[in-house]
Design a protein that fits this description.
single chain, Pnp Oxidase, Chain A, 5 helices, about 25% helix, about 30% strand
């Protein structure tokens, strides 16, 4: 049976910290446009306080989450246990995109491992926390993180990453504005 939680307590924090993967879902406003669901990992999720979480957003082939958050702020993050006791937790809230040029980026960035593949930090003020059994989620064994993203970012170099993000991450597939900072960089 599902349960609602008022805040992220120590038990919930322990569950969060033991997960190696999570999913992020967003959608544009209105009935048009594409709903987005993205898998995330690579030690990128942090609990900031009992009602605030954040994750390091890496360079990708699209920027749907960023565009949707800029438009309406709605986001849900889901974690499910692939190892150990079954459990699913969803964090509903209002998300904010923190880009490298934003003052709060410098405060948040040290909380995450260093990587040239990072493009932003997504901070979420959580307004609903719900968990459920997770009995239908299969058991998987974690083996390792994939190195390809970091290798790709290293090969691109700083200017190559900026050009890539200018081309691929400035707007969503629906034409909504996404990342701002690549356009502000010299190229």
């Amino acid at each position: 049976m599902g349960k609602l939680h008022e805040k992220i307590d120590d038990n919930m924090r322990h569950f969060i910290e033991s997960q190696r993967m999570f999913f992020v879902a967003t959608a544009p406003s209105g009935s048009e446009g594409h709903v987005n669901l993205s898998p995330k990992g690579l030690d990128s999720f942090r609990v900031l306080d009992s009602k605030t979480v954040a994750y390091l957003d890496f360079i990708g082939s699209g920027a749907e989450t960023i565009a949707h958050l800029r438009e309406n702020g709605r986001i849900v993050i889901m974690m499910c246990a692939f190892e150990g006791p079954p459990r699913i937790v969803r964090f509903y809230g209002s998300g904010e995109v923190v880009e490298p040029e934003d003052a709060s980026f410098r405060d948040l960035r040290p909380l995450f491992p260093g990587s040239d593949a990072a493009r932003a930090i997504i901070r979420v003020e959580v307004n609903r926390i719900a968990d459920s059994c997770g009995h239908g989620v299969p058991v998987y064994e974690y083996r390792q993180d994939r190195p390809q993203l970091f290798d790709w970012a290293d090969r691109k170099g700083e200017q190559g990453r900026i050009r890539y993000q200018r081309e691929k991450n400035s707007q969503s597939i629906d034409g909504l504005p996404a990342l701002r900072w690549p356009d502000e960089q010299s190229g």
